[in-house]
Amino acid sequence: MFVHKIDEELELKLPQKHDAEALFRLTDQSRSHLKEWLPWLDFTTKEEDTKNFIAGSNKLYADNQGLNALIFFKGELAGVAGYNQLDWTNKTAKVGYWLGVGFQGHGIMTRTAQALTQYAFEELNMNRVEIRAAAGNKKSRAIPERLGYTYEGQIRQAEWLYDHYVDHVMYGMLSDEWKNR
Ligand SMILES: CC(C)(COP(=O)(O)OP(=O)(O)OC[C@H]1O[C@@H](n2cnc3c(N)ncnc32)[C@H](O)[C@@H]1OP(=O)(O)O)[C@@H](O)C(=O)NCCC(=O)NCCS
């Protein structure tokens, strides 16, 4: 069971079956906000879909291939963040995240992404952490930029979002850069 306290306000936890109701509620309340940049909202329309996500997240973690953690802000479920992929061959962790509507603007994700970056280097011994975002997703891009990641370039038409493609931008942090920042 993964539990990681970030600071006095923030904690990450691997989702459990009993989290399904709260996680589905947050997703459903945040649907139009999340749909602007995330591709899976039309596949999450009932609590059963969230239960499947939680089961998949537990398997991903058990297989050591990634981590989807719930973010608790002052004890309240605020969003999800983690490693979409842990690439052990290339020692690269790929960070992903979202916040529920109403939880933006508190620095929750900047602190969470910082903790995930630190954990990837110091606990998982990764060499590289990547954050990818749609080119137009200014709030998402601001997170690696605040944390001192390097902008590495743009990937054209990298993702299909319901009815159009979006370009992605790639940010990277290397282990040596993290140590010497
Ligand atoms: C991307 C997303 C997580 C960013 O949320 P966010 O609230 O802007 O990011 P943070 O939680 O780090 O908060 C940063 C904001 O809080 C402010 N802030 C307050 N306290 C802060 C602190 N201690 N540290 C950093 N920022 C702080 C910052 O000034 C910033 O405000 P601004 O946007 O007015 O400049 C959110 O917009 C989201 O979930 N979007 C939809 C899903 C999505 O796009 N996911 C990413 C796909 S790649």
Automatic annotation (TrEMBL):
Keywords: Transferase. The keyword Nucleotide-binding does not apply. It comes from the Bacteria. Gene3D superfamilies: 3.40.630.30. The keyword Phosphoprotein does not apply. Residues 10-172 form the N-acetyltransferase domain. InterPro entries: Acyl_CoA_acyltransferase (IPR016181), GNAT_dom (IPR000182), Ribosomal_N-acetyltransferase (IPR051908). GO terms for molecular function: protein N-terminal-serine acetyltransferase activity; protein-N-terminal-alanine acetyltransferase activity. GO terms for cellular component: cytoplasm. Coiled coil: none annotated. It holds the Pfam family Acetyltransf_3. This is GCN5 family acetyltransferase. It comes from Jeotgalibacillus campisalis.
